[in-house]
Amino acid sequence: MNLYKDKLISAKDAVRLIQSNDWVDYGLATSLPYDLDIELSKRADELENINIRGSLSLRDLEVLKANKKDKNGNPVFTWNSWFMGGFERKRIKDGCVFHTPMRFSEVPRYYRENIERVDVAMLQVAPMDEHGFFNFGPCSSFNLAICEKAKVVIVEANKNMPRCLGGPEEGIHISNVDYIVEGSNPKMPILPSGAPCDEDIKIAELLVPEIPNGACLQLGIGAIPNTVGSLLADTDIKDLGVHSEMYVDGFLQLAKKGKINGSKKNIDRFKQTFTFALGSEKLYKYIDNNSQIISAAVDYVNDVRVISRLDNFISINNAVEIDLFGQINAETAGLRHISGAGGQLDFVLGAYLSKGGKSFICLKSTFQDKDGQLKPTIVPTLKTGSVVTDTRANTQYVVTEYGKVNLKGLSSWQKAEALISISHPMFRGDLIKQADEMKIWRKSNK
């Protein structure tokens, strides 16, 4: 407690430590600071060229709202994001938000070996416990790696942050913290989850029969993974395990129905393992001090070698589009950023290496463009500028509301035939014509 008193500082005084040209780290999702962000935004007139790393903000950051040009015509605050959320996408047009490509499992190593500078780390944490530890709450991910790299570590304690225990690198000791801010204790950010549409339900219904008793689940972000969890909760499935980059409300529904016990997991038996959690207030309440939970660093949770040790591993993720070669884009619409790679490739690879494992990429067969026109998500080739998240050799199952296909081991014409068979009927004729022009179609195809 003497250390605590010595290191206690106001948010206003804490951000005075930041100087022009500094690199500042905010962390990920629930780790993003609140009061410190507000106070730093008030220094927009004094500073120049502040680069901030972070990602997946569920609110419009104060530093970006207060942003202005410095004397060189550049933004005072530049946001370098590991993963693009809705608020971040809206700010790209302002020229102050940029994406940092990554494979999620590698990010701790980026900090420890590749990133040259972290001048100041500012992270939201749970209040210090009786042993002197600040828990990283729902987001262990790569926070300790940030702190190990940073010249100055400032933690913002939030009484509303749940304590998530059980895993490596779940928190930081006060001896490794430079300053402590007692924040205004905002509630945890809620990840909105609207009601699933008909297509979401159809896709989930195709996935549920593929999940056996004793399977270990990874659910990604979005409506479809959560819908799978909801439908599974009403089946007679049993003995499920959880080993997931993200912990979502779909898992909460399964746990409340007694479907999850982790008894069949090869490692971390009887535990639910994740690296960050986002969802409802009920989810945060459930994971708080829950001894069944393991909140661990992402280089453990997303390690392909770790995932592969878990039998019957089922990975369920989303995509923006897929081409007839089987290349998956889960990040952009052409040059327009939508999301990020996250750990999708980690789990696509890990699930296939698992004994009995399966990887599913899910997408609706169409979307509406800004003019209200219906457009296909299964396309001949990816749009110019679109990013390949998973290569054609990585892709296993692809699922739309029209069916599911396994692309492993298929030749180019077989992949084209399989993907066209689950595309929207309105676009199948055009896809066949273009596949023929691309020399990946045969007369014998149906």
Describe the structure.
α6 runs parallel beside α7, α9 packs parallel to α10 and α15 packs antiparallel against α16. This protein folds into 2 domains: 181 residues, Glutaconate Coenzyme A-transferase (3-Layer(aba) Sandwich), CATH 3.40.1080; 240 residues, Glutaconate Coenzyme A-transferase (3-Layer(aba) Sandwich). The chain has 16 helices and 24 strands. The termini are far apart. It is an alpha/beta fold. The longest helix has 13 residues. It is globular and about 75 Å long. β10, α9 and β11 form a beta-alpha-beta unit. An 8-stranded mixed beta sheet has the order 13-12-11-10-14-19-23-24, sandwiched between helices. A 7-stranded parallel beta sheet has the order 4-3-2-1-5-7-9.
Keywords:
2 domains, 22% strand, seven-stranded parallel sheet, 446 residues, alpha/beta, single chain, eight-stranded mixed sheet
